[in-house]
Each structure stands twice: as C-alpha cells, then as structure tokens.
Amino acid sequence: MSGGHSFSAAEISRGVKSDDGSFVVELVTPKTTLVPQETFSEDVAAEYLAMMGLAPSLLEVVVFSPVVDGRVAVMAINRECFAHLSLTYGDAVTFVSPLILGSAPEEGVLLELLGDVLYVRIYKGGLLFAEALEVRNDEDLLYAVTRINEVYHIYNMRVRAKGDVDRLKKPFKNLFTDLVCE
Fold first, then answer.
1. How do residues 45-59 score in pLDDT, each as one tens digit?
2. Which of 7, 80, 68 is nearest to 32 (CA)?
3. For 95, which of 63, 76, 88, 122 could close a Cys bridge (C-beta 3.0–4.6 Å)?
C-alpha cells in the first residue's frame, strides 16, 4: 500500500498478472474522485481532481479506472511509480479504486479504512455519496463521520465496515445503531 506517493519496485515486480495478462493496481489514495461515465473525458482527467481541491502535485500523474456502475474513478499516483508500472507492464496495467470496488447495497453505508484513507459510500436506491478521505488518527475519523452524519444521517443506517476494522471500532463504538464489521 503506497497511498500513491511512494513505492517499492521490488514489490511491484512480484505482482501477479491475471490469466488474461492484465495487471490490476488498486490505488489507495485520498486523491480520488468519481466522475459519471457520460461526462468523463480522458483529456481533462486532472481537472476533475483539481475541481475537488485534490489537484495532483508536480510529482504525480493522473490515472483512471475502467467504468464501473456508470462511474470512473480518477486518481493521482506518483509519477515514478506510474513510469515503472508502464515500463514493466505496458498497456496491461489497469488502475482501480476501493471507491468503486465491491458490491453495493440497496440502502446503507460502506466504510473501508485502508491505511490513512477512509472510503465512504452511502446508498439509498443508488449512490448518494462517495468520498476518499485522509484520516491520520481517531479524531480525524470521528470528525469525518460526524460531518457526513450531519448531512446524510448515517448513524441510524446499516453500516458495513471493512479494512482496518480494529482501528474503526474504538471511535465508532457508540455512534452507529447497526454497525457490522467484516
């Protein structure tokens, strides 16, 4: 897990290609946003991040996922890491984000904590909210979820927690009426 900022060439070289020869890279970075398929254009991918206040730095490049459920995940990745992946795997590399992976409930909240990134997805007859948030400590976790609750009232919704659930349990212990940790 690199957060899109650093990488180990040795670890990448040990990566496993799928049967069809492709190589899927799951980026864990708060510099992620979703764009509807209908409005997505490769030419302005960096602008989508910039509009969200997540503009890539000079050391980063912008990549994007395939379309999943009508949305494209746009993400920033370290320029050197991207160059290494491109050199090693060429066009066989596909980038994905936890923000678009997994099954979506008809109604409820998905929380996934990976390193210092909290992925939040809220569903009610469709996707209402999706965000990748940088959370460095318990206070950041609590603040993020409290602010989201002020708008979407998630404390009384069914919440599925994944990833580093041990780290999530302490600050979320008494917040949610229906919290399931996977």
1. 999 999 999 999 999
2. 68
3. 63
